[in-house]
């Protein structure tokens, strides 16, 4: 699936991934390949990307939203480190 992480200033990440773990406002949740359509609010916390079976990448994000549609995950956040 395709993952894009966007802030008001720039595109932080864009690429093909196996999955992504996100900090929802009520707790962590994970989106994997071919996930059902979803829109959710995000809280402050760690966003973890599963790039392949042996490689992960993490970002600290501020609040925002995530949209999952047609095997593409778009994360819109206020800030990202």
UniProtKB/TrEMBL annotation:
What molecular functions are annotated in GO for this chain?
Answer: proton-transporting ATP synthase activity, rotational mechanism
- What is the annotated localization of this protein? Endomembrane system
Q: What is its main location?
A: membrane
Which residues are in the ATP synthase F1 complex delta/epsilon subunit N-terminal domain? 2-78
Q: What InterPro entries does UniProt report for this protein, alphabetically?
A: ATP_synth_F1_dsu/esu, ATP_synth_F1_dsu/esu_N, ATPsynth_dsu/esu_N
> Which controlled-vocabulary keywords does the entry list?
ATP synthesis, CF(1), Ion transport, Membrane, Transport
Its membrane topology is listed as: Peripheral membrane protein
- Assigned protein family: Belongs to the ATPase epsilon chain family.
Identify this protein by name. ATP synthase F1 subcomplex epsilon subunit
Organism for this UniProt entry: Hydrobacter penzbergensis
């Amino acid at each position: 699936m395709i993952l894009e992480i966007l802030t008001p200033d720039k595109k932080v990440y864009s690429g093909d991934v196996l999955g992504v773990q996100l900090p929802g406002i009520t707790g962590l949740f994970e989106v994997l390949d071919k996930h059902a359509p979803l829109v959710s609010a995000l809280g402050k916390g760690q966003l973890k990307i599963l790039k392949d079976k042996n490689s992960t990448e993490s970002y600290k994000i501020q609040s925002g939203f995530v949209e999952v549609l047609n095997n593409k995950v778009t994360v819109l956040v206020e800030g990202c480190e």
